[in-house]
Fold:
Amino acid sequence: MDKNLVALLKSSVALWVIIACSVIAIMVAVERLMALWRFSDRSRSLADAVTRALLRGDLEDGRAQCERSGSPAAEVFLAVLQARSPPPAGRRAPAPEKVAAAVERQRVQVSLKLRQNLWILGTIGATAPFVGLFGTVVGIMQAFHQMSVTGQGGFSVVAAGISEALITTAAGIAVAVEAVVIFNWLNTHVQKLGVQFKLLCEELVEIALEPAPAPAAPSRAVAPPEGA
Structure:
């Protein structure tokens, strides 16, 4: 490693802050990718299982599917199943508007979970260049201070210190670009997942609010007429 860079790492707190921001941005990106991995496919698979349970009238199986899934969408689908459950004695079934509102509240909570920690990337993207600029200003101040202490003048005396200080600005800009690119990609992906999930929830609510099919009457054999 270059000796000047080593000296800069030893003396520049701002550069260490920028390196920490870069590491944090990568960690947040990996964590969000793992959390969003196959979210849409798992939600669709669970929704299909809940739909089949609703059509069969087997609400317990639908609840069991949600509890076993471990998907963030399970809470929303449990609210959908609650709409089909028979109300307690003496109480009326909830109005369709209340059912839709309850499901929407759960869906919004899931959307917030999908966006979790994205603010960290936005913050790093906005502040990293200023941290780099701060480190550069401090480095230039130190270079001019060294010039005043030694009593030697001229640009050649401070050129090395200024060039080292400018590395901090370049690093801050690079980390900001990294964080902003990751933030924009993840934000777009989360918005797409949110729209797909909203449509899925609306479809399930429509199925849940349909009247339950009446059980088929048992067929009775018709007795043949006498003398036949």
Residues 3-209 form one domain. The longest helix spans residues 155-209.
